[in-house]
Structure formats: structure tokens, C-alpha cells
């Protein structure tokens, strides 16, 4: 079974990942991903793609994962404050926000049931990553708590992706 294909990465992005601006490009992409605005590639491909194109030595791996965690946390924090200030309806009306009202209601339920810890848990999960940012932003959740839980969840997600890339390279096809 093939989980990810490097072919899904746009060629212009691939060339930027192999340039001297690679870490800056990765940082920008991660901010977009955290803010739920990454539309040109699957978020699950960001760290494995960076490891494949930038390098996967221990220093490079640590740097890539750190950049990904900081970038996605910044993006989610921007979304958290946007939702807090502008409200749920504002976000749902925006074309860049990829979630329907009914799907968001399901995430409201998760947040109501599990509380703030759901932020970290959802950040670790494929396909729901970051979606608890909206209910968290609408709640009385402390911003510092949100940032910490967002970063913890992002760290676990990025480490899982890096581990899959390093330990199970057969799951990825690069070409």
C-alpha cells in the first residue's frame, strides 16, 4: 500500500525545497498548514517531503521537525485568535476554511466531551488535524494552554510522519 507520493508535491515547491531557502519555505508552508490554508499539497507530505529533499540526517531531522512544529503552531494560533475575534460564522463563510457546518459541529462535540486535551489529540490525527482550533477559539480556553497543547499535538504528528519516513520508507514512493 502506498500512503504518500512525492509526485503530489508541486514541482515549483520541490525546487524550492532543494534551494538554500528550504528551511524558510518549510516554515511558511507549515504556517499555512496550521492555519488550514494549505491547498497545494497534502499536509501529511510536508515533513516526509522535506526529509526526502532537504535531508534526513539527525540534525536535519531535528531542524525539520522543529520548524514544522513551530510553523504549524503559529498558524493554528493565528486561526485561534481569528476565530476568537471574528466568530464561527465568519470562518465558515470563508472559502479557505475547508470544513462544513455539520462537520464542525462534530468537532464541537469532541471539544465539549474531551475539553482542551482534544486540541493535542486532534493535532495528532490524520484528516482532523487542527479542526479543534475553532471550538477552542470560541471557548474560554486560555491562549497559552492552546499554544502548548497545539505544539504537543503537532510534535507528535510530525514525529509520527518522520518515523514513517525513516522506518518505513517502503510506504512512500518518490519519483
TrEMBL record:
Keywords: Cell membrane, Membrane, Transmembrane, Transmembrane helix. Signal peptide: none annotated. The chain crosses the membrane at residues 21-41, 61-83, 146-167. It holds the Pfam family VTT_dom. One of its GO terms (cellular component) is plasma membrane. InterPro entries: DedA_domain, VTT_dom. Residues 52-163 form the VTT domain. Its main location: membrane. It is found in: Cell membrane. It is a multi-pass membrane protein. PANTHER family: ALKALINE PHOSPHATASE LIKE PROTEIN, UNDECAPRENYL PHOSPHATE TRANSPORTER A. This is VTT domain-containing protein. It comes from Natronorubrum aibiense.
